[in-house]
Each structure stands twice: as structure tokens, then as C-alpha cells.
Design brief:
- This protein is an alpha+beta fold.
- The protein is built from 15 helices and 23 strands.
- A hairpin with a 5-residue loop joins strand 8 and strand 9.
Length: 650
């Protein structure tokens, strides 16, 4: 026994399923939005920090640049000798309180000083300045990046700040150098001037930024890393080779940059432990330095996770409440359908007058009850009409069977064979697509001549069959008084066209075969050309004429052909060439030719054999497809043996 399912349960689960799907989509969209906003916030936070660091370094560099540019002017005014250069350096380091300064010149600039000359002045101690010429083959500054960068700068523009380097020649400390090009009085770049900066000034910038980060982005008691050593927030300055110049912690930016991916347009990285980070970069002008702000994923998505959990919890509770409320409401709403279902069972048993329940509300269920009541009345009326229609259909089918018998009885049933005649043998077949046919064929003998025709009426069914009967009667009547096919056709056309109010027409072929000579006179009215099967296979030439019944004054043409002994005239309607298989492909004239040639090769071109082979070929081609048109074929074989003349015998 099949277990019955409850409509209320199915509707409830369908509603909940749809709502759950939309909830999932909404939650997903909200979470994606929250995470995107988190990324945007982290990007703004990182950008704010890198902009602040870049601004502080740039402002410091500007102050350095002003002092260095003024000092450079003094050097450019004292380029006559190395001693003047050292004196100018000493004057500037004393005035500007630089930790050290230097001037490196192009190869062989000062005669007698050799290829390298780099004047370097620094504080040996708090009271003494030390002068050194440090240019040498071991200190080939020409290939140094700081020299190339400084020489490439424009004199009127900013200089170049080098990466920090360790100088053990003075106090074994870390320094940076700010370099500018030196230009002589001929506006030629002849060297590079630079001042040394203590590396500690960068630490001061970082300490100030760290305080700002904790104050604005982190809780006051929150650290920049957790107990496991994962960095929450890191600021680093790296050079063009990804080496760290300065930073909050020991996080290696080069390791992070080894594994990168794009997350919603944001650069994501991972450390050796697989911990994900999001990084902001910004280049510092006038240096090869880059500021990197690195934020841990937990910091980026902290408030997004909390909000996501709250949303999921609220949605889950809401779904449970909606499920319970929806289930109860649907059960109450479909309760009247149960009563209507019981009444429907009675109607299905044949009790069309079974009482139907009444409902309090005029809703869709009440309308369904009214529709069901109307259906009861319609069923009673329909059954009565069906009984009457069935009786009428049986009468019509009986009449059609009688009409088909009468129609087929109008066609010749006896066909002359070789055993009966020595001049001609003939066979024909007509297979209607419906109960009655619109095709026709006819033949008879008069005055040692064979009069024959084949035709195809436009349309199908009873109208076509009546038109076929009229056409066949006209052929018999007119050909009994007239022997020329063109006159027979012309007279038939005028007779049929004058009474043709339905504008139907018939394609027709009329032939008269002289049985004593084999001379065939014929006239074609829009019908398929017959085929001659004898010494070979070919079509009988036919003039173009319109079908019968269209224009009453049309004059049809007469044609003649000599039919030799053994030749078969094969006539057919378009039901042969247009027979279709299940895929709507047609039999077509080329297959008709193939079957005719096969029959000729097998010496089976006698009428009955040829039509049998053609019928079998069509049935194999069509298969189980329904016959779409009437199929009519007629074959006439001329078998008259001609006697040789006396002269030929002699």
C-alpha cells in the first residue's frame, strides 16, 4: 500500500526550503559585504600609516635637503683645489652640525690626486674633526649606487637618500647618506656631495607611529603580537632587494612576498607557519625604500567575524520561528481541501450528483469547490453528448466505408494480361491515405486503341474523392466521342472549370496508344512525367501545361512517342515521389529510377512485377511512418510483335 503524503507537510517544507535558500544567499551576500568592508577598512588603516610614515620621512628629508643644498653651494664655489674642498667641508660641518660630509669627484678631476678623490670630513670626537681622502681602488665609489644615483639627480631638485650602511671607520654605527650632484661653473656635473645622517632618526619616526597605531587602531592594553608570536600589526621599511631597513618586529617581508595571492583586490601573503597577512606598500620618494604595513587576518576580520556570528544566530532563530508559524498556518489553510477530496472520491466512482461541502470564506478553496460543482454538471452533459457523438461517428464511419467501396468500384478491377492479349498488358494500384482517395486512374479499349489516364486531385478526403469521380466520368464520356488526347484534355478542362466553384484542380495525364503500331499520343496537364522502362530507363518528354479545372480557355498541346515492343510505360502520382519516412525525408524521383533500373536488370519490367517492386521499395523506405498522401501507380507494357516485311525476307 502506498503511503499517503500530507500536503501541509510538503508545502511547509517547500516554503522553508525556499526561505532557507534566500536566507543563505542573503547571509552570504552580507558576509561577503562585511569581509569586503573589513578589507577596505584595513586597507584604509594601512594606507593611513604608510602615508604618515612617508610624510614624516619626506619632511625630515626636506630639512636635510635645505641644509645639504646650501652646503653644496659652498663646495661648488671652492673647486680650485683639494684643500679648498676640505676647507669648505669643514666650514659646513661646523655650521650645520652634520655628523659627517663628503665630496666625491669624477675620475682624475684634480690633477695629481689620481683617479679617485673623495674628500671625507667627520667628527673624530667632540673637539676634533678628521679629514680623509678615502677614494681608492678598494673604495671604487664610481660603481657605488649612491654615487650613480646622486650624479643622476637634477641640481635644482631633491637628492637621494641611501640605504642604511654600517660604518666601522668612525664609531661602528649605522648611517644613511643624503647625496646631491656637484656642478662646476660650466654647468657640468663633476661629482657628488653628501651628508651623513644618524640611523636613529628613523627609530624616532617609528616610535611615534607605533604610539599612533596603538592609540587609534588597537586597544590601549592590546599588544602588537599574541602569545604564540603571531604579529598582529607590523610596520617595516625595506630596500629595493626586499631587505628590511627598519621595523617593529622580526617578521621577514621577503618570506611573505614569496607566497602571494589576490583576495578581493587586496594583496594577501602568508608566513612560514601559513599565517595569512594583508599588506600595504608605498614607495618613499627620493629613496629606494618602501614602507610596508602588515596586518594579521584576525585583526582585519575581527569585527566582521563577530557580526557574522550575530547574523547567523539571528537568522537561525528566525528560521525556526517562521517554520513553526508557517506549518501551523498551512495546516489550517488546507483543512477544507480534505472535505473536498472526499467528495471528489464519490464523483470518481460515478456518483456525479454527490453533495459538495460548503465553506465559510470565499477564497480560492471555495472557488475550487464551485468549479468542481460546475464540472459535475459538465460531466453529466458531456456524457450525454458523447453518447450522441459516438453514434453519429459510427454512422459517418459506416458511410465512409460505403463511399470508399463505391469509389474503388468505379476504377477498373480487371487488368489485361499476356495470356489474354498479344499486344499489351497492364496493371495498376491505388492506395488511399484516408478512407477515400483523391487519386484516379482509368483505361479501356476502343478501335484497337488503349485509352488511359492517371490523375491527382488537389486536397484530400471526401471533397477530393467527389472531384475524382467527376474527373473520371468526364474522361469516360469525352474520350468515347474523341480520340485525340489534347482535345479530350481541353474539353475536360472546360467542363470541369465551368462548374468548379470550390477552385479545386486535378493534375492529369491522358494517353492513347495505337496497339497496331505502338504510336503513343498523349497530353499532360501538370502531372509527373511517366517513365519508360525498355532498352533503358528515362522520362517521357512532357510539355508544361496547367492542371485541369483552373482556366477554362486553356489549349492543351498534343505530343507523340513511339513505343517499342517490350517497353513499359510507368505512370504514378506524387504520392510515390513524396512518400516520407519518420524523419520527413522523401522517396524522390532518383529512387524511382533506381527501382526501375533494378527491375529492368532483373527482367521484371512487366506491369505487375514492376509495381510490386516499387511498392515494396516504398514500404521499406517509409517504415512505420504514417502514409501522408494517396499513392497510385499504373504500368502499361506494349508486347505487340512486329512482322518483318516481304522485302526484308528476300
Amino acid at each position: 500500500m502506498i503511503k499517503k503524503s500530507r500536503l501541509s507537510r510538503r508545502i511547509t517544507w517547500h516554503v522553508i526550503g525556499i526561505m532557507s535558500l534566500f536566507n543563505v544567499l542573503i547571509i552570504g551576500a552580507i558576509l561577503v559585504f562585511v569581509f569586503r568592508v573589513s578589507l577596505v577598512n584595513s586597507n584604509m588603516r594601512g594606507q593611513y600609516v604608510v602615508d604618515g610614515i612617508e610624510g614624516k620621512i619626506e619632511s625630515t628629508l626636506w630639512a636635510v635637503h635645505v641644509g645639504a643644498a646650501n652646503s653644496r653651494d659652498e663646495i661648488e664655489r671652492n673647486l680650485e683645489s683639494p684643500e679648498q674642498v676640505f676647507d669648505a667641508l669643514e666650514h659646513e660641518i661646523t655650521v650645520n652640525q652634520f655628523m659627517g660630509c663628503f665630496a666625491a669627484f669624477e675620475p682624475d678631476y684634480f690633477k695629481g690626486q689620481g683617479r679617485w678623490f673623495e674628500a671625507y670630513l667627520y667628527h673624530a670626537d667632540s673637539t676634533r674633526l678628521e679629514r680623509q681622502q678615502i677614494g681608492s681602488p678598494s673604495h671604487d665609489y664610481f660603481n657605488g649606487p649612491w654615487y650613480k644615483k646622486g650624479l643622476s639627480r637634477d641640481r635644482q631638485g631633491m637628492g637621494y637618500l641611501t640605504v642604511p650602511y654600517f660604518d666601522n671607520s668612525v664609531d661602528s654605527a649605522m648611517y644613511c647618506s643624503y647625496v646631491l650632484p656637484i656642478v662646476d661653473h660650466l654647468d657640468r656635473k663633476v661629482g657628488v656631495y653628501g651628508v651623513d645622517l644618524d640611523y636613529l632618526w628613523l627609530n624616532e619616526v617609528f616610535v611615534e607611529v607605533e604610539k599612533m597605531v596603538k592609540r587609534e587602531f588597537l586597544d590601549s592594553d592590546e599588544k602588537l603580537q599574541d602569545r604564540n608570536g603571531n604579529i598582529y600589526f607590523s610596520i617595516q621599511i625595506i630596500d629595493d632587494k626586499d631587505n628590511r631597513i627598519l621595523g617593529f618586529d622580526s617578521l621577514d617581508i621577503s618570506i611573505l612576498k614569496a607566497e602571494q595571492k589576490d583576495v578581493f583586490g587586496k594583496l594577501g601573503m602568508k608566513d612560514l607557519k601559513g599565517t595569512p597577512y594583508y599588506v600595504n606598500f608605498k614607495s618613499i620618494p627620493y629613496t629606494d625604500w618602501t614602507v610596508a604595513v602588515i596586518q594579521h587576518r584576525d585583526l582585519v576580520f575581527a569585527w566582521g567575524r563577530i557580526l557574522g556570528i550575530i547574523i547567523l544566530l539571528c537568522m537561525s532563530i528566525g528560521c525556526i520561528v517562521i517554520f513553526l508559524f508557517t506549518r501551523r498556518s498551512i495546516r489550517r489553510a488546507i483543512k477544507p481541501l480534505r472535505f473536498l477530496s472526499e467528495s471528489a472520491k464519490e464523483v470518481s466512482k460515478g456518483n456525479f450528483n454527490a453533495p459538495l461541502p460548503t465553506f465559510k470564506y470565499n477564497d480560492e478553496v471555495a472557488q475550487l469547490r464551485d468549479s468542481f460543482g460546475n464540472m459535475q454538471q459538465s460531466l453529466v452533459k458531456y456524457i450525454e453528448e458523447l453518447k450522441e457523438t459516438t453514434a453519429q461517428k459510427a454512422t459517418i464511419e459506416s458511410d465512409l466505408r460505403i463511399a470508399s467501396t463505391i469509389q474503388m468500384g468505379m476504377l477498373p478491377e480487371k487488368f489485361p494480361t499476356k495470356a489474354e492479349r498479344d499486344d499489351v498488358q497492364l496493371f495498376a494500384s491505388l492506395t488511399p491515405a484516408k478512407e477515400v482517395s483523391g487519386d484516379l486512374f482509368d483505361f479501356y479499349f476502343r478501335d484497337d486503341k488503349l485509352f488511359f489516364c492517371i490523375g491527382d486531385v488537389s486536397g484530400k478526403g471526401v471533397p477530393a474523392s467527389l472531384f475524382m469521380a467527376v474527373t473520371r466520368s468526364a474522361f469516360r464520356t469525352i474520350s468515347a466521342q474523341e480520340s485525340m488526347p489534347d482535345r479530350i484534355m481541353t474539353t475536360m478542362n472546360k467542363t470541369i472549370a465551368d462548374m468548379n466553384k470550390t477552385h479545386m484542380f486535378v493534375t492529369l495525364f491522358v494517353g492513347v496508344l495505337d496497339l497496331s503500331t505502338g504510336c503513343l499520343q498523349y497530353c499532360n496537364a501538370g502531372h509527373d512525367a511517366p517513365m519508360l522502362v525498355g532498352a533503358g530507363v528515362g522520362e517521357l518528354p512532357c510539355d508544361t501545361n496547367i492542371p485541369v479545372g483552373i482556366r477554362p480557355k486553356w489549349e492543351y498541346s498534343l505530343q507523340e512517342a513511339q513505343i517499342f515492343t517490350g517497353t513499359t510505360i510507368f505512370l504514378f502520382t506524387d504520392g510515390l515521389t513524396e512518400a516520407m519516412d519518420a524523419s520527413k525525408a522523401m522517396f524522390r524521383i532518383n529512387r524511382v529510377n533506381d527501382v526501375a533500373e533494378q527491375a529492368l536488370a532483373q527482367q521484371q519490367q512487366e506491369p505487375r512485377q514492376l509495381i510490386s517492386m516499387m511498392t515494396e521499395a516504398v514500404h521499406q523506405f517509409v517504415g512505420d511512418a504514417e502514409q501522408s498522401d494517396d499513392l497510385t501507380m499504373m504500368a502499361i507494357q506494349y508486347i505487340k510483335e512486329r512482322k518483318e516485311s516481304t522485302n526484308n525476307k528476300e
